[in-house]
Amino acid sequence: MTERRLIIAIDGPAGAGKSTVARLLAKRLGYLFISTGAMYRAVAWKALNDGITLDNIDRTGRLAAESLIELKGDVDAMRLMIDGRDITEEINTPQVSQAASKVSTISAVRRALVARQQEMGREGGVVMEGRDIGTQVFPKAHVKIYLDATSEARSKRRFSEDAARGITDTTQDQMKAEIEERDYRDISRTDSPLVQAEDAIYIDSSTMTIDEVVEQIMEIIAREKGKDSNQYLQRC
Ligand code: DC
């Protein structure tokens, strides 16, 4: 019996550890890793770079539909490309974070990116993380996780990540305020707001290590895969 290649959806607010966890899961499973936040960041980066004001909904929507956004390379060294230009190092600034949160409220942007995400994950064998994967992109994903943490824990993590990258121009309090502002925008937008899918499993990672979160999700995935062999045994 060939093993089903699952679609794993991981949603949750900024800084909950989704990217790191999704990347590690993809590595363990030999699956594709897709950070959909990076795709919204790519649109935001290009709009800023082209001098398009983010309240110009038509132009920003067109930009999302017409740009070629690619996630290339190995899980550990994934590069984000837009129209052939590598912007991996340029998308994690506070300016792009805020702009990404704004462009993600534009329905035309969401339509263009969701269609591409569905195409990328269509064959299964994918760990996709974002805000609306279990609700909009793959409502029938085999495993849905809602990964959460307090805003204190999330800002602390993002602050340490930035420090490790040499970004030291934001204090932890500013980081917390920024995260809370983005949370508010992600939760209150009318198109596909951040919400836990009814059938998603809730994990609060505030006091957990990344490895603990990964192990817990691997157990959930193993149970889902186990359904295959149970169904197989019942048929024998
Ligand atoms: O995960 P991230 O911080 O890189 O995401 C950047 C922004 O993109 C975030 O503020 C919300 C938005 N986003 C979204 O609306 N839907 C997704 N599936 C992923 C990200």
Q: Can you put this structure into words, describing what you see?
A:
The chain has a single domain (7-235), classed as Rossmann fold, CATH 3.40.50.300. The chain is built from 9 helices and 8 strands. It has helices at residues 18-29, 36-49, 57-66, 94-103, 107-121, 133-137, 151-164, 172-188, 210-235, and strands at residues 7-11, 32-35, 69-72, 79-82, 85-86, 126-130, 143-148, 201-204. Strands 2-6-1-7-8 form a 5-stranded parallel sheet, sandwiched between helices. A 3-stranded antiparallel sheet has the order 3-4-5, covered by helices on one side. Helix 2 (36-49) crosses helix 4, helix 3 runs parallel beside helix 5 (107-121) and helix 4 packs parallel to helix 8. The longest helix has 26 residues, at 210-235. The structure holds 2'-deoxycytidine-5'-monophosphate. The site of 2'-deoxycytidine-5'-monophosphate (DC) has 13 residues, from helix 2, helix 4 and helix 8.
